[in-house]
C-alpha cells in the first residue's frame, strides 16, 4: 500500500517497514493485547535497531 511513498521518500530517509503483530509474516502471541502492547512492540524494534530518533507514519491502528 505504501510502495509509491517508499520510492519517493527513500532518497531522503532511511525507511523501515514492519508487520504489526499477526499481520504479514509476523507471529503473534495469543490475544488479548492492547494498543500499549503494539506501541511497546514498535519501541522494542527501534531499541533493538538502536534507532534513537525517528519520524513515524502509519495508517489507522498503525499510526
Can you describe this structure?
This protein has one domain. 33% of the residues lie in helices and 0% in strands. The model has no long low-confidence stretch (mean pLDDT 85). The radius of gyration is 13 Å and the shape is globular. It contains two helices and no strands. It has helices at residues 3-9, 35-48. The chain is an all-alpha fold. GO terms for molecular function: triacylglycerol lipase activity. Residues 7-63 form the AB hydrolase-1 domain.
How many domains?
A: 1
Low-confidence stretches: none
Q: Beta-strand level of the residues, as a percent range?
A: under 5%
User: Helix tally?
Assistant: 2
Determine the fraction of residues in helical runs and give it as a percent range. Answer: 25-40%
Organism: Paracoccus sediminis
Keywords: Hydrolase
InterPro entries: AB_hydrolase, AB_hydrolase_1, AB_hydrolase_fold
GO molecular function: triacylglycerol lipase activity
Amino acid at each position: 500500500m505504501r510502495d509509491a511513498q517508499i520510492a519517493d521518500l527513500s532518497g531522503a530517509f532511511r525507511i523501515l517497514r514492519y508487520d504489526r503483530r499477526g499481520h504479514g509474516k509476523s507471529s503473534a502471541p495469543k490475544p488479548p493485547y492492547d494498543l500499549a502492547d503494539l506501541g511497546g512492540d514498535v519501541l522494542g524494534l527501534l531499541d533493538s535497531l538502536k534507532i534513537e530518533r525517528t519520524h513515524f507514519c502509519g495508517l489507522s491502528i498503525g499510526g
